[in-house]
Amino acid sequence: MCFPHLLSGENHALREIHDVFAKLTLLLVGVHIALHWQWIMGVFRKMLKTKEGNWNKKAIVTSVLILALFIGSMQWLATNVKPNEAFKPKFEQKVAQASETFPPPGKFRERPHEEHHGTSHPLLVILGHFTFWTVVIVPVYYIEKRMRHKRQVRV
User: Fold this and answer.
1) Which residues, listed in sequence order, are joined to residue 49 by a DSSP beta bridge?
2) What would the pLDDT profile of 28-46 be if each residue is shown by its tens digit?
3) Which among 11, 34, 116, 130 could bridge 140 via Cys, Cβ 3.0 to 4.6 Å?
4) Rounded to an integer, what distance in angstroms lies between the CA atom of residue 49 and that of residue 47?
5) Taking a C-beta distance cutoff of 8 angstroms, is the pair 78, 124 a contact?
6) How far out from the chain centre does Cα 39 lie?
């Protein structure tokens, strides 16, 4: 194994790089959604309204049921399934073997390992992503809308 301490969770630099790229990805997804907001709303209008302009009750009820099923399954998973338990013994064994072969440098032993990733409730994580996207989407949408309006006025 070339990098035994990558498995042990003691490599804080990689974790920080992961966090930076995860936040950058969330930012870019928010900008992407904002730039396509008119199309997204048009698709939802077509899904939820009939040709006569009335609300399509079946589509609305189906959407609400799917959302409730999603939230319920996330809640069930968060309370009944512990993802780390299935892999923990094998994972700890590999880390112990790697640490015997390649002891970690002193600077990694100085900092206690704090496990804070993966402990949040999934619904709170999703809510946090949507909150972040809202902060990104709203300003980008209005900036893009204003720029589009200025281009139309010039032409």
Assistant:
1) 55
2) 999 999 999 999 999 988 8
3) 34
4) 6
5) no
6) 22
